[in-house]
Each structure stands twice: as structure tokens, then as C-alpha cells.
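One example given next:
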Amino acid sequence: MFKTSRRTFGLGLVVALASTVSCSKLFLENPLEPGVYGSSEKELLRLWTDVLTAAKRDDRQRLVEMMASMKMSLEELAMLIGQDKARRFWPRYELLAKPLLGPAAAELVASIYEHHYDDVEVTRVDTLSAEKQSDTEKVIQRALVQPTPVYRVRIVRKGHPYAIRYDFFVYQHGFWKTGRELGKFLEPPPPLNSPELPVKIAPPPAQRDGGTPIVN
């Protein structure tokens, strides 16, 4: 029978605790540094290709780290749509961006597993014609306080029409940030068109040959 001294046990416990703390620290801290991905369309494609690769491997920690880096701060949102609007819509944005801190990663892994997504498409939308922009993208363009390159990202399966779409990507402070679906809320919805009641038109009074109306 082997004997384990208190000293050995204590040392093992310290090592185990240090390892746990180190892993927790690694999980909580974002290892992505500003500028790891550049500001070009090609670099946004590279970021999302890495996201897709991590999702295929079910590397949740890496996936959460990358997706969490896409959340804007209040100041970054204000740079895009102005301080007043940013403060007004910040609670809404926080709700929309909350899944980036965990649930969105799990959703992406499940969708890729189910639909076998295998490719990424990136499109710059601010240079598209109005006909090729969605209604939400048009709202975003009107809301921006200054011209800013804006992109959409689609996770696709080659040769199939299905896709996962992520909107409103901009580059700020060395990171790619997303406004999520905030464009749906930046303008009030258009008024509902109430159906018009049919107008009853009275027939003209009958006339005699001489042009005098016949009054019944």
C-alpha cells in the first residue's frame, strides 16, 4: 500500500487549484488583442471563417471569446448613431447582444451540426444599391452620423439556399463589432394602412330628351 504524505497531498491540491484558477482566468479573459483581425472585408471573412472552424470543432470557449469581442460598448454605439440615440436604444442593444456572451455560440454549433454549414459570405452593404439592401440596412444607413462601411455576414452551405445571417458589422478600435438587429428598432414602424370604405356613388338623375331632369 502506498502512503501519501500530507505535504504531497497539499502540494497536489495547490497545483490543482492553481490549474483551476488559471483555466477560469483563461475563460473569463478575452485573449483577442486589438488588430488581430484587420479592417478589410477580407479580414472580416477570416474572422468568421475562424468562427465557423471553432463551431465545427465545438470549441465553445474559443467561440464565445470571438463572439463576445463583437459586442459594442455604449461609446462605440454612440460613434455610429449619436449619443442621444445610443443612450435611448442601449437597453435594447444589450438585450440583442446578450446572446453573444454564450447562447449564440451554442446556437451556432447546433445549427452547423444540423444543416452542415461549411462556408462564409461577407457583403459590404453601404455600397449596394437600394434595391439590394434590406429594409433594416436602409434604416441603419439613415441612422449613421457619418459614412461608415457596414457589412453583413452569412454562414451558408455550398449549393443550398439555407443560411444564418448576421447583420450590422463595423470595425471599431481594432475589433469587428455588430449592432445585431438594432436596425429594426431605430425608426418607428410605418403606419398600418387601414382599408378604405367603398364610396357609394349615386347614379345621375334620369333625363328627358330635352335635358330636363326627371325628379321622382
Strands lie at 119-124, 151-156, 163-172, 175-178. Confidence is low (pLDDT under 50) at residues 13-30, 209-216. The chain has one domain: 32-183. The radius of gyration is 29 Å.
